Design the sequence.
C-alpha cells in the first residue's frame, strides 16, 4: 500500500557538511563471559551458567570518523548511509555543485567532537569484545577509555534526500550519493503490530505454563 500509494514530494541532491575526526584511543574493558550447560533430569531440565571474567587492553587509531555538521540533517540517517570511500575525496571545486544543494555547517567542530568520541569509544569496546571468543555471551561490566584527539578535516559528502507523503504523513529517505546505500522511514501498521505483540505474549505465557506444569 505504501509503495503504490505514496506521493513523492521531492528528490534533492545535497552536499552535506561533515567533520572528519582522527583519534588514538587507549582502552581497557572488563567483560562477564558466560557458557551454559543444559542437562535433563527425570523430572526437570537444569541449566547451569558458568561465569568468567575477561579483560582486554589495547590501542586503536582512527582516521576520518564522520559526523555531519548540519542540524537540518537527521543524524540517524546520516550515520546509517555510511560508509563513504574517503580515498576518493577530491579538492573542492564549484564544478561539482550544479544540480546539488550545498549546505554549510551550523554545528561546530567542538560540538560534533562529542559524537565522534562516543563512536570511537563504542568501536573500541566492540573490537575488544570480538576477541573474547568461545563463550555463549559476553557483557561489558566496566570500561575505561582515554581518547587522544587527532587531525580534523572538513568535507562535503553527496547525499540524495527523498521526501514522500502517505496518508497525510511525511517519510524521509536518504541515499549515499557515492555508494547508493539507502535508509529511510517506513510506516508501521499499529493494528498488526498490536496483534503480533499479543500473539507473542500469549505464546510466551503458554510456554511458561508448560514448564510450570
Sequence:
Amino acid at each position: 500500500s505504501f509503495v503504490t500509494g505514496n506521493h513523492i514530494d521531492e528528490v534533492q541532491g545535497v552536499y552535506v557538511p561533515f567533520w572528519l575526526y582522527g583519534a588514538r584511543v587507549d582502552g581497557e574493558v572488563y567483560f562477564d563471559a558466560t557458557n551454559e550447560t543444559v542437562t535433563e533430569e527425570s523430572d526437570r531440565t537444569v541449566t547451569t551458567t558458568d561465569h568468567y571474567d575477561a579483560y582486554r587492553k589495547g590501542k586503536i587509531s582512527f582516521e576520518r570518523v564522520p559526523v555531519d555538521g548540519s542540524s537540518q540533517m537527521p543524524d540517524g540517517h546520516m550515520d546509517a548511509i555510511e560508509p563513504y570511500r574517503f580515498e576518493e575525496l577530491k579538492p573542492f571545486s564549484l564544478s561539482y555543485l550544479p544540480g546539488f544543494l550545498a549546505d554549510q555547517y551550523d554545528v561546530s567542530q567542538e560540538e560534533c567532537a562529542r559524537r565522534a568520541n562516543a563512536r570511537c569509544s563504542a568501536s573500541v569496546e566492540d573490537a575488544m569484545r570480538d576477541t573474547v571468543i568461545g563463550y555463549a555471551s559476553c557483557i561489558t561490566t566496566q570500561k575505561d577509555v582515554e581518547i587522544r584527539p587527532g587531525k580534523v578535516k572538513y568535507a562535503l559528502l553527496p547525499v540524495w534526500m527523498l521526501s514522500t507523503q502517505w496518508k497525510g504523513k511525511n517519510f524521509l529517505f536518504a541515499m549515499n550519493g557515492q555508494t547508493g546505500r539507502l535508509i529511510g522511514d517506513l510506516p508501521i501498521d499499529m493494528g498488526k503490530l498490536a496483534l503480533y505483540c499479543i500473539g507473542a505474549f500469549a505464546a510466551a505465557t503458554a510456554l511458561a505454563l508448560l514448564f510450570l506444569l
